[in-house]
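anyone seen this seq b4? input:
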Amino acid sequence: MVKTLAVLLALAAVAAAGDEGLDDGPPLLLGFRLAAGKLPVAHEELTTATIGLDVDHPIASRWRAFGEYEWMWLDRDTTSMQHGSGHRLLAGLRHSVVEKRAHHFRAYLDVEAGGGMSILDDTMIGVRMLPTGFGGLRGGYDFFAADSPSRVLETEVTVRAMMVGDSTGVMAGFDMQWGD
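predicted toks r here
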């Protein structure tokens, strides 16, 4: 996971060397994220729902760095009294592979990768601290309005493969972000 992040950072640095400026997309963005999926923890598939905060910033043309904090709800099934919660911190890079612009509107498809740490507390498995890696796709759109105090509204859908420990699960989410 650390090697993957190092390679992505090196690629971002090489990409930035030939750029004349930063991304002409949105500036610093702050927002929230809702996600759900299945994550493998201690050889069990746990249904996971999250609510989180995120920050996103341009680092080079078509490259952005982001960080996220998520509170996690863990459940085995809807009838079970066995459940848990947790916290997850993630950092990563995203790169726009497809982008279409029109006047005050931009639609895009990005690839992303990164890693972080999860701390889980579950009634069956106890407290666990797990390294987390991810890779995924993020598609969405931006609206730009020069006459608004919040000049950018970004809405996106994210699908990620999440590596938790030695297993992989899938999470899908909805994000909204605002920027100046």
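The CA atoms of residues 54 and 68 lie 4 Å apart. Residues 2-17 form the longest helix (16 residues). kinda curious what u guys think
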